[in-house]
Specification:
The protein is of the alpha+beta class. It has six domains: 7-86, no CATH class; 115-194, 2-Layer Sandwich (Alpha-Beta Plaits), CATH 3.30.70.100; 212-312 and 418-488 and 767-820, no CATH class; 323-408, Calcium-transporting ATPase, cytoplasmic transduction domain A, CATH 2.70.150; 501-527 and 649-751, Rossmann fold (3-Layer(aba) Sandwich), CATH 3.40.50; 532-646, Calcium-transporting ATPase, cytoplasmic domain N (3-Layer(aba) Sandwich). Helix content is 47%, strand content 16%. The protein has 27 helices and 27 strands. The two termini are 36 Å apart. The model is unreliable at 1-116 and 197-206 (pLDDT under 50). The structure holds adenosine-5'-triphosphate and copper (I) ion (CU1). Adenosine-5'-triphosphate binds at residues 39, 42-43, 521-523, 555, 558, 560, 562-563, 583, 586-589, 600-602, 629, 631, 671-673.
Amino acid sequence: MSGGVKNSKTPAGDEAASCCETFNLGTGLRVKNTGESHKANDHAHDQKAHNHNKCSDDHSHEGHNHDAHSHGGEGHSHDEHNHKGCNHDHAAQEHSHEGHDHGHEGDCCSAAPEQLSSLGGSQVVAGGLRTEIRIMQMDCPVEENLIKKKLGGMSSVKELDFNLMQRVLTVTHTPDSLEAIMAAIRSLGFEPEVSDNTSGKKNTQEKKKPWWPLALAGVAALAAEVMHWADMPDWLEAGLALIAVLSCGLTTYQKGWISIRNGNLNINALMSIAVTGALVLGQWPEAAMVMVLFTIAELIEAKSLDRARNAIGSLMNLTPETAMVQQADGTWQEVDASSVQPGSIVRVKPGERIGLDGEIVKGQTTINQAPITGESMPVDKIAGDTVFAGTINQSGSFEYKVTAAANNTTLARIIHAVEQAQGAKAATQRFVDRFSQIYTPVVMGIAVAVAVLPPLFGAGTWQEWIYKALVMLVIACPCALVISTPVTIVSGLTAAARKGILIKGGVYLEQGRKLKALALDKTGTITHGKPVQTDVMVFNGWSEREVRTTAASLASYSDHPVSLAIVNASADLKKQDVDSFEAIVGRGVHGVITGKDFYLGNLRLTEEHFNCPSEIKATVQRLESQGKTVILLNDGKQVLGLFAVADTVKNSSREAIEQLHELGVKTIMLTGDNPHTAKAIASQVGIDEARGNQLPEDKHRAVEEHSRIGITGMVGDGINDAPALAAADIGFAMGAMGTDTAIETADVALMDDDLRKIPAFVKLSRQTYSLLVQNISLALGIKAVFLVLTLMGMGTMWMAVFADVGASLLVVANGLRLLRK
Ligand SMILES: Nc1ncnc2c1ncn2[C@@H]1O[C@H](COP(=O)(O)OP(=O)(O)OP(=O)(O)O)[C@@H](O)[C@H]1O
Ligand SMILES: [Cu+]
């Protein structure tokens, strides 16, 4: 089975084809399933309904009924195309549980390797305009509050959405208010940037700061310390300290002042107060040291944050920058990959990386698709097969026809999805944000009390207690706490993407560890989805040749795996013409051949027309309990023939189920196939529970049922099981590599058909969670220790700086560990 969509076989297919061609041109994406295109489009009805609700806004979700038996010939290919061709912007929103509307970024995803995602400009939305603003100086997370406070008070601002990792602020605002918003941000000392859609690239890099002031400050601070020990005169110490503080601390003072003026205390404000206080108290060398240490630490922190940020971008670096493209005159020329148009022919040599998505037109090879699927077993590819940007060509030379521009490749979509996933804040992150808003004022309150109360009651000198209070001000900064979560989540999302698991939001990464039950469908998910015909029987005087010809003729109009098996087994026979072909969901197919009605499908379909003789039923049952799927050919009055087909179980499925059970996840198989076959297959792979005869809404109900008890996942191919996937807490789509819709509509998209990616996802989710907990305890623990030390009189200010920025460094480094997994 070559897979893919066969619209040519569908009556009225022409119309369908032309329609989807337009769609395809529109998105620049021609989707063709790779190898295991299980369950193609014969689940026509539910699929169709689903397509509609994905592709157009005017169809309600309840549309996934199957009262649509009658849409007859204009069938499936059309639907499938629609589905695949439909613009992803709609689809993306449908699943955005968090209500974040990210669709507007459209195709902006980085065309060339760059460190930060590009900005989408302004977009018209319900509440007015939505604009993405990049603020490079938004480095300490506390600055988020500063901006929130300032903009939140403006009546023209409807909604704010911060993405600190990308340093992008998304504002929903009334038209004409953008200038005022930019001015407000500037008044806070930031330099906001808006993409002006016309000029492509922007200068997104931070301006390089000269290094010498910091070096000078360091030397001066050290000298001041030496003067102090050497008992030199105070004015020398003081002078050196002032030089140190002024040469490296001016920006800190500046930022601090802006923050204080706006009634907010960020780390810069806290440091400024602390250092000034130390100077006032005559602690010259200490004040200088603290400012220098703080500046250095901030630098390191910024660097490590960049690393987390760039981890995603590094996925993009997988694609080569140039491609060898055939010119109009037949010659080959190396051109910029981002300028290659879909339809161009590109040549790839052994060992090279593939630059764009495409379809092989000449040659054959093996390709390592690990960069996308995480599976390092090379895959054989011949003409007609799909290749993906970022994957590595191993053995042969070949030529392929480009199917998507550089900014629209599967890899680009993955990266885009990961970038957006960070925007949807996970529960822990929201908790931490809320907590930090209480934490800082509380610690500051304690600091004030410490400064004032003890000396008032004569428990020491003012000097001594004010110093302690200043130290506490430094400890009051929640940086480490606030930064720990996004860094960890981003690392987790990126680590997953590298394994071929595309997680569409921090939420799912957090929920995965709690997965209680997983529903799986059978065909193509647990099995290979490529059944082979094993038995044929004839009844009521028909010859085997007649039965096979009639059945194969009907089946050839369908892409259902069972039908494909029948067609393949009778490839030698000449097919007859079929009129009024229709697919009947969960049952089979119907058509008219030389004026007579024929039905080909499961026992259920037969019994809906007449009572099947009990000997035949017994035979069906016997075959089914061997794990075979049995379908019957009837003419509406009597059974004419019987076919049994057998599908094989993927080895990886068995392993995956075992791993899931070890992780404490219950497994349930939901299949449209009959209960006997379901049971037989289920016992082969060790699945806990098997339910057969499941129509799409039965699957939906079953998932909902489990979901009430605990977090429930559902795996399917993202097309046929749409209602159930949508009902699941976490919907997994399999074999997403070639299908953009699967990437965009699932909660978690598995790039290939390997079920073991689900236990891997659960494990990663657990690791991420334990790192989150570690980080939060680390951040709070370190601060608590220094708080106590300070109160006991053992904490010094430079220790507090370590406590603050050191803790930040620690949690960032800890979070980045996930990337090495
Ligand atoms: N086009 C078809 N040709 C032949 N048989 C069909 C066809 N469509 C449905 N059937 C019969 O109906 C049964 C149920 O089909 P359905 O598509 O709901 O499930 P499935 O694809 O077999 O299994 P799963 O739900 O695990 O994907 C099939 O097992 C088959 O016996
Ligand atoms: Cu901080």
